[in-house]
Amino acid sequence: MFVSYKWLQDYIDLTGVTATELAEKITKSGIEVEGVEILNDGIKGVVVGHVLEREQHPNADKLSKCLVDVGEEQPVQIICGAPNVAKGQKVAVATVGAVLPGNFKIKRAKLRGEESNGMICSLTELGMEGKVVPKEYSEGIFVFPAEAEVGVDALALLNRDDEVLELSLTPNRADCLSMLGVAYEVAAILGREVKLPETDLQSSTEKAADYVKIVVDAKEDNPLYVAKIIKNVEIAPSPLWMQTRLMSAGIRPHNNVVDITNYILLEYGQPLHAFDYDRLGSKEILVRRANDGEKFVTLDDTERTLTSEHLVITNGTVPVALAGVMGGANSEVTPDTTTVLLESAYFIGGTVRKASKDHGLRSEASARFEKGVDPNRVRVAGERAAYLMAKYANGEVLEGAAEADTLSVEPAVVSITLEKINRVLGTDLGMKDVKEIFDRLQFTVIVEQGTITVTAPTRRGDIKIEEDLLEEVARLYGYDNIPKTLPIGSSTPGRLSEYQKKRRFVRQYLEGVGLYQAVTYSLTSEEKATQFALEKRETIRLAMPMSEERSILRLSIMPQLLEVLKYNSARQNDSLGVYETGAVFLANGEDLLPVEKEHLAGAITGLWHSHSWQGEKKAVDFFVVKGILEGMFAKLGLAEGVQYVQAKVEGMHPGRTAEIILNGEKIGFVGQVHPSVQKELDLKDTYVFELSLKAVLEADAPVLQYEAIPRFPSITRDIALVVNKETVSGTLKEIILSSGAPLLKEVQVFDLYEGDRMEEGKKSIAFSLKYVDPERTLTDEEVTKVHDRVLEALKEQAGAVLRG
Amino acid sequence: MQERLKELQEEAIQKIEQSASLKELNDIRVAYLGKKGPITEVLRGMGKLSAEERPVMGALVNEVREAIAVKIEAKQKALEEAAVLEKLASESIDVTLPGSPVKVGNHHPLTRIIEEIEDLFIGMGYQVAEGPEVEQDYYNFEALNLPKGHPARDMQDSFYITEEILLRTHTSPVQARTMEKHQGKGPIKIICPGKVYRRDNDDATHSHQFMQIEGLVVGENIRMSDLKGTLEVFAKKMFGDDREIRLRPSFFPFTEPSVEMDISCKICGGHGCSVCKKTGWIEILGAGMVHPNVLEMAGYDSKKYTGFAFGMGPERIAMLKYGVDDIRHFYTNDVRFLKQFSKHE
Fold first, then answer.
1. Any idea which architecture B109-341 has in CATH?
2. What is the pLDDT at residue A439?
3. Where is the Aminoacyl-transfer RNA synthetases class-II family profile domain (chain B) (predicted)?
């Protein structure tokens, strides 16, 4: 809502309060003022000029040479490019030395050889928005009424010596969608009186009710419909002050009748509609739900197909307006209109919202109905409009109004105790302080002992319960004045859950080994949603996505991380590691919430280590990533239960991918992205992992327990085994561990050879075996005994022989 | 003989002094003190001496041998020291060359902000509560005093999956769920961080996915002044002790009274600049006293219990705190952006 500082003074005395001060006060007590616009900021030297002569520029088709009286001793010659400039007009002239918006300085100039001493201005050149400029002046200069005085400040005449407060209204404060509503608010803040607008007029002897009969079928949608009749109107431009006020509020002027309805909308917050009475073609207004499929052309010349959810105003047979949203082309006021039927009605918000939403027609009027208008202003707004039409369109207002009224207006009565106010706010207010606040709001107040009972005016439809009164007290008492305390009472332990603690650890660990944390979108495309998914499920699609790219909830994080690598790689960062923790969404059937599983994914591409001047360079490989995971599992105490099993995963390198098994359950995978995928994304060799973080963090880990440090020396035996190429080290290690127990404490691979010197289909793996007895020093014979058993088992179970 | 010995001693000492390497020195040792050396030769000749002369001569020989040995040892030490020094000198390096890089990543800036806020409130006795990102309409709206058809639902156009299921538009449903779980009993003190979703086109200031952190305190004597005090502690710890706070009345369907909190603008010190839109104040969060309908719906007696709630956007806080100018940076994950948030603070 745009509020003109000058206009507001019609209703309330603002002496001693500047626009900026007012903005600050309004903001602090409840309604945020987003800004204060000084309309003539940076503009000076623009006066009203009189075009004495106008002739064709001798050297330019599109230019006029004008002689303009600007109130100085001599008229000046000005070259003008506007198509509508003409002799006799009163126009806005930026004289030599004037400044226009954008710090545009007007200088004496020669245009195609002709001297020009100033500039005749359009409204946009004076800083007004094109969309509010009256249509007839939108392509050229603005023309003042003939009575405008030459030489006076043109900006003042255009009401630009004003400031406009932009209010950002929350949905509960629809009362401030009107100048009067704002005036009541300001009155409460400043403790001043509200002056109401003039509505009294001499009515004609004819009765409105004789001209039209109102029938409302849809009473629930429209409990009150009031029609006034104004005869003999003369359609003309509205007075300049009205036009300028509309423009400052963001509304384009049309003609006096239409402008008056818009002016009342701004003044009272009550939308009105003016019909051309003669074009209605009947003496009846029937308000009903539209028929499904009924057609109707709105005044923007668009044919609309209606449904039974839409409310229409009809002439008894065909629609003439879409209630509360837009009038019809068939009954619109035209320059030839002489009799106006003025509608002032109370339409229910939900009905109006449905129509405005379905037809994409959001207007100043529909917005007000949607948020709720004041039922007690419906009639007075009509009266005021009629008064203005009599005054500014020479209309004859018929007596009374034709009405259909089933509206019951019950003002809200709410009670609250002083004790509650102070208990909830933490204040120490007296009854007198509280009563004074409600008095300033012009709420009716009854005080009985400790209880205060308030009758809220109907314009404040947001006041319904005790807490609403609390808020009124708090905001007008001032939040600055409320003390600062901390909650008292039983204390609560502040802490993270075990899960949250471990998750923080995992993040820190991964960052400690060199990965950056990424945060990506949960919504993705159909194609990416299921790539690399650990569990195959139906995808979950938004009912109305904004784009295909963001239409499905992800089942895995990996595709997004690969996108991150691709983005960075294309920007000269082709060696990088990232990880993300976040939910993936597993469908559970139509009407149930999906299972949200927290996953952990990581992706590393390019060089893992590089220290050029020492000639060190290492590209990421499977074992880098596996090492990172092993470290993580070890830190979480889960290393014992983790296995890596060669596996095939779609999109992954078939020979370089492993499933990760934790305590017998598959929780994820690790490996190289398939080379064809790498190529598609233009990535260097990229190794990734994705696993269920939930499974990892919820797995039971053994309790930390001290183990005695061995007091006796260990004996180490190294063996090099020749095995079939397919035999994996993990199998051999397991054989060694189980056959060497309990003396065998550690096994490590220390060499792998698959070169030419091996027999076809064979490879050599070397292990280092460490034997310890915690109770005594082992003898060579004892170790040899066990060691031989190990070798035997290797031979039997894996066909492994010692390398000769 | 005596003279011969003296001569030998002088000769040896001279050679020792002239020797330049350990090898040369060893040759000298062998030459003079070895079995075939001249001094041993002299000893052999002692048989010819008388019984009186012999001990005298023997002592002299020993004296000479001792003198030469001491000299050799001293020289050997000197030579060895010189060798070490020479070796060390040859080993010197350019200490200004760069060290071997240690790979370290860091938190995403939003995680950084969220953890900072979590820790701050954990210190005040809060627990961290989490909930689903895909929610029932009931928890996202209805339980928060936003019945179907409520005009405020427009404020947050939502991503629906079915008529009853949607991506949560705020983390408030976690509050509703937590209250429900407590079955009408207090106290509750929680902070709820998480991802939320709204139908916005992504641009410099909007994102269809973003983070939110909300707090909720419910108890028997929770006052508006407690909210004000709590928010001030938060603002000063998060943005600095020199910041002022102000509460402005506002509107949220789930709180009444509702407020928005501003902090004084650090950039202009409250005098007005482009960041604070010339107001001197920057909006940080929304808050209020929990609406009695919300308490009642979750099973609390609103006559007995009161509560306050607040909510804020980590993106906005990060943008203000670090001067980030485009919300999309948080979701592009450009490493040149991410790595700027590695400093430990």
1. 2-Layer Sandwich (3.30)
2. 95
3. 111-340
Whether the Cβ atoms of residue B282 and residue B320 lie closer than 8 Å to each other: yes
Q: What is the mean pLDDT of residues A778-799?
A: 93
SS3 assignment, position A54 = strand
Q: How far is B28 from chain A (nearest CA, A)?
A: 45
All structural domains of chain A, each given as residue ranges with its CATH number in brackets, are 2-39+163-190 (3.30.56.10), 44-157 (2.40.50.140), 208-405 (3.50.40.10), 413-481 (3.30.56.10), 498-698 (3.30.930.10), 715-802 (3.30.70.380)
Q: Report the residue from B189, B208, B247 with minimal CB separation from A479.
A: B247
What interface predicted TM-score (ipTM) does this complex get? 0.87
Distance from C-alpha of B208 to C-alpha of A625, rounded to nearest angstrom: 33
CA atoms of A688 and A576, how far apart (whole Å): 12
List, for residues B209-234, the tens digit of each pLDDT value: 999 999 999 999 899 999 999 999 99
User: In this predicted model, what pLDDT tens digit does every residue of A690-718 receive, in sequence order?
Assistant: 999 999 999 999 899 998 888 899 999 99
pLDDT tens, residue by residue, A57-75: 998 889 999 999 999 999 9
CB contact under 8 A, A544 and B103: no
Q: Looking at residue A165, what is its pLDDT?
A: 95
In a mutagenesis test of the A interface, which of B190, B203, B223 is the best target, namely the one with the most A β-carbons within 10 Å?
Answer: B223
**Residues of A with Cβ-Cβ distance to B291 under 8 angstroms:** 467
Cis peptide upstream of residue B187 (ω within 30 degrees of 0): yes
Are B248 and A27 in contact (CB < 8 Å)?
A: yes
Can you tell me the distance from the alpha carbon of B1 to that of B4, in angstroms, rounded to the nearest whole number?
5
B37 or A156: which carries more pLDDT confidence? A156
Residue B287, Cβ density class (10 Å: 0-12 exposed, 13-18 middle, ≥19 buried)? buried
Least confident of A638-642, B47-51, B67-71: B47-51
Asked whether residue A472 is marked as a ligand-binding residue, the answer is yes
Q: Which amino acid is residue A799, in one-letter code?
A: G
Cα gap A437→A568, rounded to integer Å: 60
What residues 480-509 of chain A have any CB closer than 8 A to a CB of chain B? 480, 482-497, 500, 504, 507
Which of B115, B127, B291 lies nearest to residue A494, judging by beta carbons?
A: B127
CB contact under 8 Å between B151 and A353, yes or no, is yes
Mean pLDDT of A386-405: 95
pLDDT at res. B152: 65
